[in-house]
Design goal:
Penicillin-binding protein 2a (Domain 2), 3 domains
């Protein structure tokens, strides 16, 4: 009996030891190795909230506030803490559909059951107030406060850009998490790293209803957010506002540059859009409407649009011709409403004939510059037209054509400056004749440019042969400042004075009289660009005053018929507004005409134009 008793006792003790050992191992596993329960417990009693920094403010050149912040609220969820809730009440408060709510919750669960995800973003103040009162009914839901952008203008969306939720590609940057905001385009995107600041965090104690009970460890482990840096742009917002009014009901763009610094004074893409439409719960619907608008308000015509420069390019032809010694300012050519070149007729309007270079620019004579191009391409010092074309092309590229001219506009196009290879393939021969490509001489044909490149050209003319990298934000640091270069052209400075004199004549008595000012000496050049799908385009660029220029401007109006009809008077008005502070009384009729002109719906145009009496190119 004693042996059996001892045996049973040993078995029982053994079982107890094994059970105890299992409990000890399990406790060790739960408390030391597997922290999921610990994490769950902490997660149920604590909540780590991201503290989002306010984005940097944006100012104009005169320190006027353009873009600022306002409080916004996102409804977030931690799926692990969720329990059954009244969906009807919640969707009524938020103004969203049940399907949308369920979809966002499922998306949050796929992302993480323990981390927070945004369910509804950019909740308005009134909805936030109602939600805050009811939030205790919804375990796992909480409000995340952050800031949204507000814009002090109802235009210039192409300049500022807007912010939106990060995409999958953005999440490769460890700074961002799902639901974060990021600059989508414009300055908001280009200067995202400057504007965004640095996120912080707060650890909060919460009860089983997810109600905040205080800070964890009195905030010892909290990390404060750092506000983003401010941007100081080079824009004159009053001038920008005026230019937008002049471009109302028109398609095209305007860019004005301060030649001595490369600072962009105004940048208008028309039609544009109100950046405030990209803020709030309606931003998706607003974006869809803008996207479907046939006038393409989301398309930034100033840097994305690719256009033929037309006759404003004749200034480049004149400079290259003089530098290559194939013409002088006194060289004359005949033109009688046009001229024949190897049986190809180059049309022109009637003017005095023959004429020298200065008058050719004043009256914008097409055959004159085809003759210049012919002499360039048939120059005996080069091995044929094909090689001479490459020399010409290199000159043109030095003016900033065929490449991006600014580092700030991430959507900037290159334009198109055809290569030798391009024409070899197009012409199917390497034995070229100048007549094959003579339309390039007047800024037409295969050559195209952005409006920014054209504006940069007139800044070069104002500076007598150099340009500073066009930019719209004053340097934020040394690295930024280094990107703003001074670029010199390999063309004799004296030739630029000849071009300036000719451009002055064009405004005083030539094709650009509609830009004339009694108070300011304006040097300008018109351009009328052939358009196979409607009325021709209207272009004009100018700098003023002639001595020590303060502004260089390019105006391009799609379907504007002639350079003198819309582009020139609009540019003249902007120059006077900038340099004089107001429009002279005698020019009010012209201002009214430009403000009322409607080229998008021409039948609604109130004033057929008094410019019909102007000399037209």
């Amino acid at each position: 009996m004693n042996q059996k008793f001892v045996y049973r006792q040993s078995v029982i003790i053994g079982i107890i030891v094994v059970i105890a050992l299992i409990y000890v191992i399990q406790l060790f596993n739960l408390q030391i190795i597997d922290d999921s329960y610990k994490f769950s417990a902490i997660n149920n009693s604590q909540r780590v909230e991201t503290e989002y920094p306010a984005r940097g403010l944006i100012f104009d050149r005169n320190n006027r506030l353009l873009v600022y912040n306002q409080a916004a609220y996102d409804l977030q969820i931690i799926p692990r803490q969720m329990s059954a809730f009244d969906t009807t009440e919640l969707i009524t408060i938020l103004g969203i559909s049940k399907e949308n709510l369920i979809r966002e919750i499922r998306k949050a669960k796929r992302y993480s059951r323990y981390k927070s995800s945004t369910i509804v973003s950019q909740i308005t103040d009134d909805k936030y107030a109602m939600l805050q009162e009811k939030l205790y009914k919804y375990p796992g839901f909480f409000i995340q406060t952050r800031t949204l952008r507000k814009y002090n203008t109802n235009h210039s969306g192409d300049v500022y850009g807007y912010i939106g939720e990060v995409g999958q590609g953005d999440l490769k940057d460890p700074y961002y998490s799902a639901g974060d905001y990021i600059g989508i385009n414009g300055l908001e995107k280009t200067y995202e790293n400057v504007l965004r600041g640095t996120k912080g965090k707060r650890i909060l104690l919460v009860d089983n209803y997810n109600r905040i009970k205080g800070s964890y460890k009195d905030g010892e482990e909290d990390e404060p957010a750092e506000v983003g840096e401010n941007l100081y742009t080079t824009l004159d917002i009053d001038l920008q506002e005026y230019a937008y009014k002049l471009m109302q009901n028109k398609k095209g763009g305007i860019i004005a540059i301060e030649p001595s610094t490369g600072e962009i004074l105004l940048k208008v893409s028309a039609p544009g859009y109100d950046p405030n439409l990209m803020v709030g719960l309606q931003r998706t619907a607003n974006y869809r409407k803008l996207q479907q608008d046939t006038t393409l308000p989301l398309f930034d015509r100033t840097v994305m649009g690719i256009y033929s420069p037309g006759s404003i390019f004749k200034t480049v032809m004149a400079l290259v011709g003089m530098e290559e010694k194939v013409i002088t300012q006194h060289t004359m050519f005949e033109c009688h409403g046009g001229s024949y070149f190897n049986r190809q007729f180059m049309k022109c309007h009637y003017h005095e004939s023959p004429l020298a270079l200065r008058a050719a620019i004043e009256h914008s004579c097409n055959p004159y510059f085809v003759n210049v191009y012919r002499r360039l391409l048939e120059n005996p010092k080069y091995n044929g037209v094909r090689d001479a074309y490459d020399i010409w092309r290199n000159y043109v590229a030095s003016f900033g054509f065929g490449k991006k001219v600014s580092f700030e506009f991430l959507n900037e196009g290159n334009g198109f400056l055809p290569s030798q290879d391009y024409f070899d393939k197009k012409l199917k021969t390497k034995n070229w004749f100048y007549t094959y490509i003579m339309s390039l001489a007047i800024g037409q044909g295969e050559f195209s440019a952005t409006l920014l490149q054209m504006a940069n050209l007139v800044a070069i003319l104002a500076n007598n042969g150099h340009y500073i990298t066009p930019h719209i934000v004053r340097p934020t640091d040394a690295e930024h400042a280094e990107k703003i270069d001074t670029n010199y052209l390999n063309i004799n400075n004296q030739y630029f004075g000849i071009i300036a004199d000719a451009m002055e004549d064009a405004v005083k008595s030539g094709t650009a009289k509609s830009a004339h000012s009694d108070s300011i000496v304006i040097c300008g050049k018109t351009g009328t660009i052939q358009n196979n799908s409607g009325p021709d385009h209207s272009a004009f660029f100018a700098f003023a005053p002639k001595e020590n220029p303060k502004i260089a401007i390019l105006v391009y109006v799609e379907n504007g018929v002639w350079g003198s009809r819309y582009a020139a008077p609009i540019a003249g008005l902007i120059i006077e507004k900038y340099l004089l502070g107001d429009i002279p009384t005698k020019k009010r009729y012209l201002e009214k005409s430009m403000l009322q002109a409607n080229l998008i719906n021409p039948t609604n145009e109130k004033n057929a134009t008094s410019e019909n009496n102007l000399t037209e190119e």
